[in-house]
TrEMBL record:
Signal peptide: none annotated. Belongs to the class-II aminoacyl-tRNA synthetase family. It comes from the Eukaryota. Keywords: Aminoacyl-tRNA synthetase, ATP-binding, Ligase, Nucleotide-binding, Protein biosynthesis. This is asparagine--tRNA ligase. Its EC number is 6.1.1.22. NCBIfam families: asnS (TIGR00457), PRK03932.1 (NF003037). It holds the Pfam family tRNA-synt_2. Gene3D superfamilies: Bira Bifunctional Protein, Domain 2, Nucleic acid-binding proteins.
Length: 484
């Protein structure tokens, strides 16, 4: 290469030209930096090598001779310290700016971090005006404050930790079902069924001038799903264990701290069972498996919440994991509530629907650990819940899992597999024609089965101790809000 370059000169090249050519050769031969995520850099696996890190500046500390930055890319709660000469200080290097840094990854002399990146180049990719940026470098912002900025709150430590926990919890739930022989089913988002029978539905209609008003695109009214349960029941006629995990929608008051218009549900259906114990075992095992996974894989992120947002909640989690979940009947629950000295806003007569205040009291009564409540009044449950055919108090084979700080986390039941009883119930509520296909499931190879649904956001609230459900979802949609 040097000889080829020399031939371009009519006379022998000068020493300075030779140095320039050699410098170009060295630059050409220089190894391309290894691109690392911050979490990978912090693991110290690439010590002594030339690396490139991309992320956002979390702190800037210029000094006379040196410049110190902390850069984070969302892969870890901990940021990577960047050390550079003062000549690399750029007025655009501010809190919140996006940067690309190359240099040598070295062991840090400071005990507060194991490694640091000695930078030889810092490039500002995206500017950020720290005056206008709603989050300030030395302030710890509360969840209520950052909720005002749904498009920016992922830049905060608390919410980035929440999103990593949410991602890992999703993986944990899928892993549990896969390891236990469940087949995942993608149930539809648009459906004509109101599974819960409560009528809290979002109707789906086409827009545009080519569609006539009042004309149904699917020939029948269509809605956003409130549950994938009925579709899972279809699949339970061919698979003994199925589940789904996806978005569901409720057109109810979502201004409260407990409700969302759009949320995620984990739902499962188990065939060949006539025992609520089979369902409660899956509920409890899934809860424990997912919680253990999150605590193991997101220890720093969970600790941030338990230390700064919900201090003391880790003790509650540890107590949950050490004890089996007790089981009480609805009738026993009503007796407990009626014997209580606490004054409840809602009545506690047999036959009433348990409210959040009742659920939280029952959890505390049972030692502030999750508790199963079974055998609810038959009239409180949807048409598909199995009739216990007991008297004088008529109950259904239904179960709820109540957890600390949240109340109801899971709800499920055995399904009514007896054709005559199911038909009579549908006739009673005027739905026999609408659910004729559901009756077919009982005509052709039906088996006793049951299932449940778990509110994913409520699960996150439970393990992190977060009070407001809008603080555990990336983009909460609720009435009177601006949708991104």
């Amino acid at each position: 290469m040097f000889q080829a370059a020399a031939k371009t000169f009519s006379v022998a090249p000068t020493a300075s030209v030779c140095r320039g050519i050699l410098s170009s050769i060295r630059q050409y031969c220089k190894k391309t930096p290894t691109k690392l995520r911050v979490s990978e850099a912090l693991s110290s696996a690439e010590l002594g090598t030339n690396v490139k890190v991309q992320g956002w500046v979390r702190s800037v500390r210029p000094q006379k001779a040196n410049l110190f930055l902390h850069v984070n890319d969302g892969s870890s709660l901990q940021s990577l310290q960047i050390v550079a000469g003062s000549e690399l200080c750029d007025p655009l290097l501010t809190f919140g700016s996006a940067v690309e840094v190359t240099g040598i990854l070295k062991k840090s002399p400071n005990q507060k971090q194991t490694v640091e990146l000695e930078a030889d180049q810092i490039h500002v990719v995206g500017e950020c005006n720290p005056v206008d940026f709603p989050f300030k470098i030395k302030e710890r912002h509360g969840l209520e404050y950052i909720r005002q900025f749904p498009h920016l709150r992922c830049r905060t430590n608390a919410f980035s930790s929440l999103l990593r926990v949410r991602s890992e919890a999703t993986t944990a739930i899928h892993s549990y079902f896969k390891e236990n022989g469940f087949v995942q089913i993608h149930t539809p988002i648009i459906t004509s069924n109101d599974c819960e029978g409560a009528g809290e539905l979002f109707q789906v209609e086409p827009s545009g001038p080519e569609h006539e008003e009042g004309e149904n695109f699917f020939s029948v009214p269509a809605f956003l799903t409130v549950s994938g349960q009925l579709h899972l029941e279809v699949m339970s006629g061919a698979f003994s264990r199925v589940y789904t995990f996806g978005p569901t929608f409720r057109a109810e008051n979502s201004q409260s701290r407990r409700h969302l218009a759009e949320f995620y549900m984990v739902e499962a259906e188990v065939s060949f069972t006539q025992s609520l114990e089979d369902l409660t075992k899956v509920m409890e095992d899934m809860f424990r498996s997912a919680t253990e996974h999150v605590l193991a894989h997101c220890a720093e992120d969970v600790a941030l919440f338990h230390k700064h947002v919900t201090p003391g909640h880790r003790d509650t989690i540890d107590a949950m994991m050490k004890r089996r979940f007790p089981v009480i009947t609805y009738s026993e629950a009503i007796d407990i509530l009626n014997r209580s000295s606490q004054k409840f806003t809602f009545p506690t007569d047999w036959g009433c629907d348990l409210q959040t205040e009742h659920e939280k009291y029952l959890v505390k009564h049972c030692g502030n650990i999750p508790v199963f409540v079974t055998d609810y009044p038959y009239d409180l449950k949807p048409f598909y819940a199995r009739d216990n055919q007991d008297h004088p108090k008529h109950t259904a084979a239904a179960v709820d899992l109540l957890v600390p700080g949240v109340g109801e986390l899971c709800g499920g039941s055995l399904r009514e597999e007896r054709l005559d009883l199911l038909r009579a119930r549908l006739e009673e509520v005027g739905l026999e024609e609408t659910y004729s296909w559901y009756l077919d499931l009982r005509r052709f190879g039906s088996v006793p089965h049951g299932g449940f649904g778990l509110g994913f956001e409520r699960f996150l609230q439970c393990i992190l101790g977060i009070d407001n459900i809008k603080d555990v979802t990336p983009f909460p949609r609720f009435s009177h809000s601006c949708l991104l």
